[in-house]
């Protein structure tokens, strides 16, 4: 499965549009990890804990996106949009959502 933020794939003409597909992931944040991440942010360091959670959420969302596209018979998803948001009480959860158009290409 190929993923692209562009509307086309160079050298691979789109022969069929299969439909819009989405993937979402919501992950809770650990209170102690949040506390230490806040300290790192104050002193200007990067928050490895948050980066790891973002990466994990993005992987889950893309896996879901690919599974939906495959179920439609697609071999690629184009025009992908990725959004990140905090949700829940006190913004205690992280949501990653991806969407795009599932397509069949001629290789």
Automatic annotation (TrEMBL):
NCBIfam families hit by this protein: PRK02877.1
Family: Belongs to the UPF0145 family.
Name of the protein in question: UPF0145 protein QWU01_14495
